[in-house]
Amino acid sequence: MLTELHPQALRIAELLRARGEKIAVADGATGGLIAASLLTVPGALDFFVGGGTVYSFRARDVLFDQPREAYKGMRGASPEYALLQARSIRDNFHADWGIAESGSVGGSTHPTGAPGGTSCAAIVGPDGDWVKMTETGRDDRIGNMEAFTRAALAHLEKTLKSA
Question: What separation in angstroms does the CA of 54 have from each of 11, 23, 27, 48, 89?
Fold first, then answer.
């Protein structure tokens, strides 16, 4: 999969480098695949500052440094939840851009009740924020991880081209 995503990662890297901007990544149901895809680009330090895989409430609390009350009334795999995460990862890592994916890949019950096969990718940049929902309608854990990663990267590339 990373071999297939590498050309897209190169295009994203080129867009960020041309702007002199950096990104931080919060992978959720994508399990680190967004960050891994971007890190296939040689010299990624030019545009990538870091991030993490947020797969538990503890990881969320550490990476985003938000009080638990900030999430009150929010559900995973929702625009508000993903936007809060994208803003937090960007700000905590002192990046220009933040991307966060929150989803439910299926195969088990999501802690906030999000249905399997549902993902939300949020991007926060210097001049705005953008959200993309993806629904596969499947309970295929590995297939959903791949689909969510592809959707998030496509959303990122499109956003960088138009911003």
Answer: 25, 16, 6, 17, 11
CA separation, residue 66 to residues 22, 57, 70, 154 (Å):
22, 11, 6, 28
Angle at 77 between CA 93 and CA 70, to 5 degrees: 55
Please check the confidence at residue 131 and state whether its pLDDT lies above 80. yes
Quick one: angle between helices 2-19 and 141-162, nearest 10?
Answer: 20
- pLDDT single digits (tens) 84-104: 999 999 999 999 999 999 998
pTM of the model: 0.94
